[in-house]
Amino acid sequence: MNIQAAIDTLEAKGIEVDLNPASVKSKSRDFFWYSPVLKDRLDHVTADFVATPKDEGEVITILATCFAHDVPVTTRGTGTGNYGQAMPLAGGCVLHLHKMDAVKDIQPGRVVVEPGCLLKDLDAAANETGQEIRMFSSTWATATIGGFIAGGSGGVGSVHWGALRDVGNIIRLRVVTMEESPRVMEITGEDLHRVSHAYGTNGIITEIEIPLAPAYDWVGLFVAFDTFDEALHYSYDLASCDGLLLKLVTAFENPIAKAYFQRVAPHVEESDALVALMVAPHSMPGWETFTNAYNARVIYRSDDNDWPKTPGHVFEYGWNHTTLRALKVDPSITYLQIAYGTDDPVALALKMRDKLSPECLQHIEVMRMGGKVSMAGLTLVKFSTEARLDEIVAAHEAEGAMNFNPHRYTLEEGGRQAVDERQLEFKREADPKGLLNPGKMIGWHDPDWGYDKMYAWTGLQPKAAAE
Ligand code: FAD
Questions:
Q1: Whose CA is nearest to atom 50 of ligand 1?
Q2: pLDDT, averaged across the chain
Q3: CATH number reported for the structural domain that contains residue 84 in this entry
Q4: Total domains, the chain
Q5: Is 32 left (phi over 0), alpha (psi -120 to 50) or beta?
Q6: What is the CATH number of the domain that holds 135?
Q7: Which residues constitute the domain of residue 179?
Q8: pTM assigned to the model
Q9: What is the predicted pLDDT for the residue at 324?
Q10: DSSP strand E in 164-270: where?
């Protein structure tokens, strides 16, 4: 790798290059530190420089230059990903896409946008046409659409629209390859799985076309229950109501609300379980009828608020914001990402609660999966040791609750513990030197890996070298 030659070439070609060690280090980090395991392994990681393209032409220049000088390239939206997704494990170049943020075209039902556009800005542009994005990560205010497509899984809206990977939730991606002469490819249909959620390991997304939905002035609600069992049954039953339009259904085991949600805490007891909701205004009468049949206490509604301190967006209590809020109160908290499936997710989540609470506290996101209601657990874990964390993961898997391990930095370990052949095959085609976000795809580096312990990529920047 010839870093200096790459920098010289890029500067000569008028590309914005940042060499300031402090800002390069800060742009080399994401929210990996949610995991004490990743914090230990990746805290020292830093790129050599940051290149900021203004348009696709400059992306091509940067990729061709880095290819010529064997410099690794790790793409960055705004670095809110967990899993160390945006961290340049081997140093090299961070390709920062924040200046490619144009909303290019909005039509009924669809939008074309550059990857660096913030989710909230994209939503605002769609709102001007009476539309909104179907789903967004709870980092709506700070994350990019490119980072969401390349690193995210689903979020606010998934209770209605399913996960990002579900057919129909992405229409088209425009992708630049990492070759001597980078190619620009238009990806649609089955091929979308090759590059979506691939952490930028096999191509750089320069344009995105996604579907839009009609916009609503969603009503945010907090509903308290005497027990978590009731809260979870209510959440499942509510999400099963075909006639109600919902954007968020999140259930929190007690005492999460009292212990970690500062503005909610005065309105709940230690023993209260909480459900956070976003309901379309026209569904509110139906929602009230439904809720009246439960032992539920509505403690907050955004359309009729009497709290002296408003809680802000209800969705900023769900998804991975729950972990963030808990971490701020208790730095020893970390989390898991569990799939409770569709068979009987309520029973499985309650089983895990019975086995592991209070060391693990249930935080459940209700989603749609294959047309059925499913539950994802972003379980809060009181961290003690790595060995105990592994035991907790194993305890879930023993009960058939699949774990998307957020304490690992590879695609496979954070996914289904298996190589995604489509992504690997596309990497062979689009990144023949293996320079895109290296160290993140086990299938590329070590196809025979057995997944019996944490993968430790041998190319990871050594700690001493970075210090
Ligand atoms: P980054 O972190 O910068 O990048 C993410 C990955 O995508 C990296 O591997 C990066 O290399 C790659 N990448 C970025 N842009 C491109 C591109 N144009 N082409 C190719 N590769 C690219 N995730 C969810 O799915 N749902 C949630 O609800 C959610 N909630 C969160 C809450 C909190 C508090 C935090 C800290 C994280 C949460 N996340 C969630 C994870 C993360 O915020 C989202 O995935 C987010 O959308 C990532 O966007 P970003 O711009 O920060 O991407």
A1: 147
A2: 96
A3: 3.30.43.10
A4: 3
A5: alpha
A6: 3.30.465.10
A7: 103-215
A8: 0.96
A9: 97
A10: 172-176, 184-187, 204-214, 219-225, 246-252
